[in-house]
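Subject: sequence -> structure tokens, single chain

Hey, anyone have a minute? Need the predicted structure for the following. Not urgent.
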Amino acid sequence: MTKRIRKAVLPVAGLGTRFLPATKAVPKEMLTIVDRPVVQHVVDEARAAGIEHFVFVTGRNKGVIEDHFDIAYELDDTLAKRGKMKELEALRADLPPAGAASFLRQQAPLGLGHAVWCARDVIGDEPFALLLPDMLHHSLGKGCLAEMIDAFEKHGGNHIGVAPVPDDQTHQYGIVGVEDVKAKVSKITKMVEKPAKGTAPSNLHITGRYILQPTIFNLLANQETGAGGEIQLTDSMIALSRQEPFYAVRFDGDIYDTGSKLGFLTANIAYALQRGDLGPQLRAEIERLLEA
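Reply:
Had a minute. Here:
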């Protein structure tokens, strides 16, 4: 019987150097998309998919992330005394249940593979989700991780979220080759990290959403450092693919790389335009600026 996906790993130890000086004192994951931190949007996606336990792999000066997912007694008390019950209930709704969040220190900037490996004891012998907080997946329908869990329950194995990119941009991404490039779910035949121009096996790039079997931890423990002197998750996934099947789950919504300035700004505009309390006014302001 296939084990249910209950836990999710969120690597949040990155320095956010692309957003300096804003991230000198504020973690990049706490920068806001409209009025919610980036990491909160990703947790929302995971909770909607049925995730019960969140494993945050953090680093130094990231304590504010832990504080965000905790009760702020002074704030709650002030809101209650002022009768701001709507705001108070919204804060409470965002909190994971007691004991449903773990915070681990990565301690050294050794890459995504190392961050995942740091979560091994909390994950244990269970398949788990991995969500990169920089990458926001937005859809008016079912969320990306929810679609992947549906595919996992049908096929088992390991799953990677993918989406098409223009052919002339494939060298900028991790790319997968699949049996059927047009299928919603297709078996992966090849994984390549930033293939040379003209050599990509498809135009499907890895979008920062994964479901992995716990056997990945043994491979990560013995993985030699790769590009940039870091332990690369892709290297261990390639090794695991020789033992277990991998499937690509195509996501057809919008994806915003909030780790880049353009992606961050675009996400703020896109999310705000879809809100009834902001959309019409913001659209008018954008039109005014474009006409200036």
